[in-house]
Amino acid sequence: MKFFIDTANLAQIKEAAELGILDGCTTNPSLMAKEGITGDKNVWNHYKKICEIVDGDVSAEVISTDYKGMIEEGKKLAKLHKNIVVKVPMIKDGIRAIKYFTDNGIKTNCTLVFSPGQAILAAKAGATYLSPFVGRLDDINLDGMELIHQIRHIYDNYQFETQILAASVRSSLHIVKCAEAGADVVTCPLSSIMGLFTHPLTDKGLAQFLADHAKANQK
Ligand code: E4P
């Protein structure tokens, strides 16, 4: 399973990259706004900075919602850096745009996916990645993880090559559940990745080892 970090915060991206287990990064317009990055030039420069840190795919989302606009914007984004993946919303024009990008060798991430039917459409269009939003389904009392299971089953039935990129992941437990469900990629905040390290028995065991070592080596 690949690990992507879901942020536009450069310090957090660096921290995750330094762990040596980071495979990519996802951003969205809300995450860019959260970092105070505004205006096309600044946004594009920020994507370049992320690409210089992350040795892997970096999703950059189009703002346009019409076919022509998405194609124009996506082409510009793809030219910024070889790591850029054009993130496109799950709407009719978005699916058309994904098909265009696929036919022209540009990687895509189909975002805002909430149903298995939408997942089929994106795979048919040849999306590189599909982003089902686990946490936002949980927020409205639906089972986000069940959607990952359903899509895995469907994609395996037809050997669709689109990679399931579980998004809107909000906890370390979500990461483990996504792995059990067979997601190809999970994108999550740094805190969820760091949470995977934690176990009280690891802390207790390490403290004991060090104490025993110190005692045995006392002069
Ligand atoms: C990533 O691609 C998504 O935009 C992101 O995971 C959404 O997460 P949220 O639902 O926590 O905003």
The rounded distance between the terminal residues' Cα atoms is 48 Å
- Level-1 CATH class name: Alpha Beta
Total helix count?
11
Q: Which strand order spans the largest sheet, edge to edge or round the barrel? A: 1-2-3-4-5-6-7-8
Query: Which percent range describes the beta-strand content?
Result: 15-25%
Q: List the ligand species.
A: erythose-4-phosphate
Overall average residue pLDDT: 98
Q: Which key terms come to mind for this protein?
A:
17% strand; TIM Barrel; 8 strands; binds erythose-4-phosphate; globular
Descriptive overview:
The protein is of the alpha/beta class. It has one domain: Aldolase class I (TIM Barrel, Alpha-Beta Barrel), CATH 3.20.20. Helix content is 54%, strand content 17%. The protein is built from eleven helices and eight strands. The chain has helices spanning 10-18, 29-34, 40-53, 67-80, 92-103, 116-124, 134-139, 144-158, 172-181, 190-195, 200-216, and strands spanning 2-6, 24-26, 57-61, 84-89, 108-113, 129-132, 163-166, 185-188. It has an eight-stranded parallel beta barrel with strand order 1-2-3-4-5-6-7-8, surrounded by six helices. Helix 4 packs across helix 5, helix 6 (116-124) runs parallel beside helix 8 (144-158) and helix 8 packs parallel to helix 9. The model has no long low-confidence stretch (mean pLDDT 98).
